[in-house]
Amino acid sequence: MSMSAWIGFTAAFLTTAAFLPQVLHTLRSRDTRGLSLGMYLAFSSGVFLWFVYGLMLGEWPIIIANGLTFLLSFAVLVLKLRHG
Q1: Per-residue b/e over 10-26, b at no fewer than 16 CB within 10 Å?
Q2: Alpha-carbon span 60 to 27, nearest angstrom
Q3: What is the CATH number of the domain that holds 35?
Q4: Residues contacting residue 84 through CB under 8 Å, at least 6 positions apart
Q5: Positive or negative, the Cα torsion across 8, 9, 13, 19?
Q6: pLDDT tens per residue across span 19-38
Q7: How far is CA 25 from CA 19, 52, 64, in A?
Q8: How many domains are there within the chain?
Q9: Residues with Cβ within 8 Å of residue 46, at least 6 apart in sequence
Q10: Structural domain for 55, as ranges
């Protein structure tokens, strides 16, 4: 695997892993009062577009990281919409 692929996969892992504690906390507590709906709408949309961009380029680090991060952010977004 090339050095650029290693860097891409490492960056993908770190950015997705950094988001995981927030998602787990929100899923457990169902408390979304401190979360901005606008931010999660923009973030989820942006991550989805990064995922599509990765698909268009065939770049697996971008596809995997943004696919997982989209699923996580979308779960929080759904909770925000349900629980305010």
Answers
A1: eebeeebeebeeebeeb
A2: 27
A3: 1.20.1280.290
A4: 32, 33
A5: positive
A6: 899 899 998 998 999 999 99
A7: 10, 28, 22
A8: 1
A9: none
A10: 3-83
Length of the chain: 84
User: What type of residue sits at position 34?
Assistant: G
Q: Does 42 score more than 90 pLDDT?
A: yes
Tell me whether residue 74 is exposed, middle or buried, using C-beta atoms within 10 angstroms of its C-beta: 0 to 12, 13 to 18, 19 or more. Answer: middle
User: HEC profile for the chain?
Assistant: CCHHHHHHHHHHHHHHHHHHHHHHHHHHHCCCCCCCHHHHHHHHHHHHHHHHHHHHHCCHHHHHHHHHHHHHHHHHHHHHHHHC
What pLDDT, on a 0 to 100 scale, did the predictor assign at position 66?
A: 95
Tokens of 29: 């507590």
